[in-house]
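Entry details:
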Amino acid sequence: MKSMKAFLLALLLFAVTVTGCHFYIGSRESLNNPVFSTWSAEDKAKNREGLMANMNEGSIPVFGSSEFQHGTDTPYHPASVFAGNRFNPMLIGAGYYQSLSHAITLAAIEPSLVNRKAVLFISPQWFRRPGVVDQAFSSRFSETLYYGMLENEKLSEETRDYIRERAHKLLSVDSKTKERVIRHEKNVLEAQGNPAERLFDSLWDRFLEEKDRFMMTVLEISNGIGEGNGIREEDTEPDWDALMQQAETDGEQDNQNQFYINSDKYKQLEPYLPAKKDMNKDAVNGYQKSPEYDDLRCFLEVCRELEIEPMLVIVPVNGYYYDYTGFPKKAREKYYDNVRAVAAEYGAKVADFADQEYTKYFFEDRVHLGRKGWVMVNESLYQFYKKG
């Protein structure tokens, strides 16, 4: 009897919340806004409703990690470079997002893609020996995106099973979410749930969808993003030479330190430098053996099965800093070769910036893109959008 009362109470709470969210969101039209694409808020990457509602013929999903939150106050970030442009790259990611999460997201939002292209920024730090950490994966996990992936009938059973097995393992640190995920899989994929479980699962799914839309509206309001105004018409290529010259000038004025990184980042790092000298000299196999390589293959397999053309952006490390820590250059080169080899397996395009390790003002800090880095990467994104 107690369990039945709890179940009925849960149903009532679902109904009230869903109804409230639905009517509130119905009064707004904010989910069709080009500004949303280059918005770098972390919670955006979990929101299937927001991502799908803002995809249009000028959009390409661009997956990555913490680089999207760096340089946002500069004229070199995609939000500035492509402001007003018809091309509005849909930035998806924040710290702790890696290949597996992005494979799930791509499969979930695929029905909304007009341009059948996708970009994935590759970060060397993803390829540490453990691969993505379970707590990190769990913190970025979205049930609505995962359920959208499960429901994409274009995915092969083999690819879906790989994702499921990896997700189950990594969600072991969040038992409640894992239980809901497994219950949903039983109901959707195996039709094994009892009537009560199927009803609860259906209501929970609907609740999550409405919650996504509600939270996106709240986030847009709190971050000052106005009402949507559809697709932009302007399609003028940015002046890359002028941007690069500006980046050079800004860098010379600000980045005069041994690693050629932003002065404020260097000041934060400077007290710790003595302890970091040659600390990685024994990393002869650094970034060379990791489950991340198979997760990357999974992302590219999703692209293949869904007929999406992929481009990998190989983001390098700051060569000056990595040399300072003693991280072997040969190990870095082997890592770059490994990523190129995986890309070749799937015929993926590659925007390869491995040769920019020693380019001054390419980095904001030890690993994140800075002035010149963003200019070069933005140009590669635009050319992929225009020409493929």
About this structure: Residues 195-222 form the longest helix (28 residues).
